């Protein structure tokens, strides 16, 4: 039997337009969501808690960062005091590790500069680190390995790719020495370049904090990071706040965990103006500045996504209003078709036959 084309109802141009608009809006939303996720995933230093919990941890964990000015005088004695306090608090809360692994970790760092010996001395940025700094900052290495917080290898350093090329013309330089004030330091790793705000790579060295303190006695711990069990909301944050307290202008405590989730991004979106106003004297390290810039970027992307969702809702509303009769007929036909198919299934027929037999038996008796 031939189907006459004149019997087919042509698709309305308006429906095609509405569908195209919806498709474009949904595609744009998906792209912006993907961009947000990709940008967030690049900030690996913000996800130490997630990495730790993936190692079969018994508890939820929270990552916190504390930033200080030199006026606070935060030093190694404070670190030892914090270590004892954490252990005592874990015991009092009956928190323990059944697998024998550490229940908490922390790391610290300070910033400075050195002049690397070369035909023309090279002014080089220094990040002086201690404890588990490299767990929080799994810096990409082009060759070699991280150094440990161990007096046996406290002359080990990691240099940036840019510095390696200036000094040796290669980043395959593991085992060679870099000289600072004529003192040799063993190169154990080469890190991928970090770029300044101007997009320019800068020479950089990572070395142990104690080692750099001998070179520059004015260095101070400007960043302290800790990973603590967080069985209930803000448990870890309140512990750190109870042990670290200075003049509000000289320090800041940030909870890194979930800082990019939907709730916190909505809060940032509501406070973008206030966030741009600096209220303390803290100078943030490069990674924190990048994270704060990303928070703003993610907030703006969320705003655009909300606008897109609103436009999708308006488009669907117009479609429903204009084609409400067609939609009603469509659903009615669909319901009848489904009902007919259900009745014609083997299971439905078997149930119907069984009921008929039961009825006939009742009639016979």
Protein model, in words:
This protein is α+β, with helices and mostly antiparallel strands and 365 residues long. The protein folds into 2 domains: 44-259, no CATH class; 324-364. The protein is 46% helix and 19% strand. It is built from 12 helices and 10 strands. It has helices at residues 13-41, 48-53, 76-92, 133-136, 161-168, 209-215, 235-243, 262-270, 272-275, 286-322, 324-343, 346-364, and strands spanning 61-68, 105-116, 122-131, 141-144, 156-160, 177-180, 183-191, 204-208, 223-229, 251-255. The chain starts with 12 loop residues before the first helix and ends with a helix. The model has no long low-confidence stretch (mean pLDDT 86).
Percentage of residues in DSSP E strands? 15-25%
Q: Structural class, judged by helices and strands?
A: alpha+beta
Unreliably modeled segments: none
| Morphology | elongated
What's the order of the H and E elements? HHEHEEHEEHEEEHEHEHHHHH
Helix content: 40-55%
Instruction: List how many beta strands DSSP finds.
Output: 10
Total domain modules: 2
Average pLDDT rating: 86
Report the C-alpha radius of gyration, rounded: 32 Å
How would a textbook summarize the main sheet?
Answer: 10 strands, mixed
Number of DSSP helices?
A: 12
| Termini Cα gap | 51 Å
What is the fold's blueprint, element by element?
Layout: H1 13-41, H2 48-53, E1 61-68, H3 76-92, E2 105-116, E3 122-131, H4 133-136, E4 141-144, E5 156-160, H5 161-168, E6 177-180, E7 183-191, E8 204-208, H6 209-215, E9 223-229, H7 235-243, E10 251-255, H8 262-270, H9 272-275, H10 286-322, H11 324-343, H12 346-364
Parallel strand pairs: 3-8, 5-7
Antiparallel strand pairs: 1-9, 1-10, 2-3, 2-9, 4-7, 5-8, 6-7
Helix pairs in contact: 1-10, 8-10
């Amino acid at each position: 039997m031939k189907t006459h084309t004149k019997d087919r109802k042509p698709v309305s141009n308006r429906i095609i337009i509405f569908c195209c608009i919806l498709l474009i809006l949904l595609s744009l939303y998906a792209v912006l969501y993907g961009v947000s996720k990709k940008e967030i995933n690049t900030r690996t230093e913000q996800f130490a808690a997630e990495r730790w919990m993936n190692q079969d941890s018994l508890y939820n964990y929270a990552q916190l960062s504390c930033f200080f000015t030199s006026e606070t005088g935060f030093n190694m004695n404070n670190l030892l005091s914090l270590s004892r306090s954490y252990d005592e608090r874990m015991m009092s809360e009956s928190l323990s590790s059944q697998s024998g692994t550490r229940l908490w970790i922390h790391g610290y760092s300070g910033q400075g500069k050195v002049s690397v010996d070369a035909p023309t001395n090279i002014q080089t940025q220094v990040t002086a680190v201690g404890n588990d700094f490299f767990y929080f900052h799994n810096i990409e290495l082009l060759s070699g390995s991280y150094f440990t917080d161990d007096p046996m290898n406290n002359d080990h350093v990691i240099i940036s790719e840019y510095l390696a090329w200036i000094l040796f013309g290669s980043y395959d330089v593991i085992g060679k020495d870099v000289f600072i004030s004529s003192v040799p330091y063993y190169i154990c790793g080469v890190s991928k370049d970090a770029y300044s705000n101007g997009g320019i790579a800068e020479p950089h060295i990572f070395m142990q904090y104690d080692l750099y303190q001998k070179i520059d006695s004015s260095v101070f711990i400007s960043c302290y990071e800790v990973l603590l069990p967080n069985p209930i909301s803000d448990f870890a944050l309140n512990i750190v706040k109870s042990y670290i307290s200075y003049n509000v202008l000289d320090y800041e405590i940030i909870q890194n965990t979930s800082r990019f989730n939907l709730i916190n991004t909505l809060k940032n979106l509501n406070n973008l103006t206030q966030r741009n106003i600096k209220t303390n004297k803290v100078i943030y390290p490069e990674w924190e500045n990048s994270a704060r810039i990303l928070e703003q970027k993610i907030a703006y992307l969320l705003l655009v996504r909300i606008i897109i969702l609103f436009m999708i809702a308006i488009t669907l509303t117009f479609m429903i209003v204009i084609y409400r009769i067609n939609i009603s007929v469509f659903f009615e036909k669909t319901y009848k078709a489904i009902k007919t198919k259900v009745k014609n299934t083997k299971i439905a027929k078997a149930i119907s036959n069984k009921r008929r037999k039961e009825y006939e038996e009742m009639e016979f008796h």
